[in-house]
Structures are given as C-alpha cells and as structure tokens.
Amino acid sequence: MNVAEYERMYRLEDTYWWFVARHRLIQAILRQHYGIPRASCDQRLLLDVGCGTGAMSCYLSQWGKVVSADFSHLALQFSAQRGLKHLVGADAMRLPFRAATFDAIIALDLLEHLPDDRAALCEFHRVLKPDGMVCALVPAYPHLWSEHDIALMHHRRYVRRELGERFISAGFQIQKLSHTMTLLYPVVALQRRLLARKTPRIPPQAAMPCFPEPVNAALTWIVTAENALARRLNFPFGVSILCVACKSEPLATDT
Fold it and tell me: Which residues of the chain have pLDDT under 50?
C-alpha cells in the first residue's frame, strides 16, 4: 500500500467501525479459545502477521507476547509509533521463524495481498506449535472487486469453499469457516458496483468513507452484535470470510 493508505489506516484503526468490529471479533475468538487473559498468558507466543499499523497487536498483548510481522517497512514504522517492541520485517510466504514457535497466528486481511497464499498457509502450519490456532479474515467474492482492492494491492477476493480447501491442503483442521459483515453486504455490494462504473482515481483510494460519530457508533454496534452471532453460527454470505483453524499433528502409526 502507499504512504497515504498507511497514514489513513493508522489514523482510523482505533475508531473506525470496520476496524473496531474486526478487532473485537478476534478478541472474542481468543477469549472463547483461551479464556479470560491472566498473568500466565506471558508464556504464550502469538504472531500478528501482516500487522499493518499495529492496532491489532496492541490488543493481542492481553493473551501473551506478540511478535508483529510485516513485509512493509512503512507498516513497521507506524507500528513502532504505537510502542510495539517485537517488530519483524518478514515475508509471510517465507517466515523467518523456527518450526513450532507460536501458539497462535492472527492474519487479518493478509492472504489476499500475497502472490502465493498457499505457500503462506504452509508457513503458518510450519511455525505453529501442535494444536496451535490461526485466525484469518479475507475479503469475499470476486464480484466485489473494485478500486478499493486496487488501492490496497489485493491479488484476489475469495469464496468460502476455496478458502477452506486451501487451509485443509496446508494441513489444518477447520474449526470455523463463516462469512462476516453479512447485514452490510447489500450496501457494500452497491457501493462497489457504483465504484466499478467510475474511472479509477489516480492514485486509487480504498473505500473507507468517513461518517459522523453517531453513524460510526451505530455501524460499530451493528457489526459487533452480528459478530456475536457469527461466533455461534456460520453465515452463508457477507463482505468478509473468517477462518479459524488448528494445526493437528498426524497420528503416529505402528511399525
């Protein structure tokens, strides 16, 4: 992404409804998996891969020591401004970590940026400990492709079955595979269709329109409430796709 997009993300990531709701969803999944954060969490090691400007890493620190990794030096510079210490320049397709290092990996809107997402998933599997967990969010539906994706340098948008097959091929067992941002899908689909009819701006810009605070708060509440249901149900459509998967070691065979 260009400097302007990183600056905008850094400015909005703690307050903009889209980011806030997603951060809350991941925190809720971690609470469901690990329970309420306790002092013993210090022994847990988490990887925030594709950490962007670092807001998610700050929240993850409740559950253990967080390593924040990103391919972009700009992203790491913004993350450093948040006071994050364990910053690593890394290519998700060739992670610079030993096998079986991490208890959990968080990958928010990362896989769509990679030329080879399959290689990244294999790397996730390699660096996770046995029974380690990965939480990933990706954009859904190729028909929603627009200037937004160009500005964010996406390679693809996903369909749910395709994403699940890629995780399984990498050796994961899927615990949850669901669309999210379901209620807002008609609005986003209309917006992206209108954008597709326009001549792209130079440089292209991500679709993150600013709203008055009451509207932003209402959108945050709507998506947070929907995410509470998404933790129990699998939604059949939506703007994003959530995948929660675990690394399971193959069973030993008698010789």
Answer: 251-255
Residue 175 is predicted with a pLDDT of 95
Calculate the dihedral angle through the C-alpha atoms of 237, 161, 107, 249, rounding to the nearest 10 degrees. 140
Q: What 8-state DSSP symbol labels residue 200?
A: P
Write the burial class of residue 201 (CB in 10 Å: 0-12 exposed, 13-18 middle, 19+ buried): exposed
Contact between residue 123 and residue 93 where contact means Cβ atoms under 8 Å apart = yes
Distance CA 147, CA 193 (A): 10
Instruction: Give the torsion through C-alpha atoms of 28, 169, 107, 240, to 10 deg.
Output: -70
Angle, CA 62 vertex, CA 223 and CA 1 arms, to 5°: 60
pLDDT at res. 215 = 93
For residue 179, with 0-12 CB atoms within 10 Å meaning exposed, 13-18 middle and 19 or more buried, which class applies? buried
Distance of alpha carbon 48 from the chain centroid: 9
> Could you tell me the two tokens for 163?
């994403």
pLDDT at position 254 is 40
Encoded tokens for 10: 């850094």
Domains of the chain plus CATH, in order, are 3-247 (3.40.50.150)
Each residue's pLDDT tens digit, 60-94: 999 999 999 999 999 999 999 999 989 999 999 99
pLDDT value, residue 137: 97
> What SS3 state is found at 8?
helix
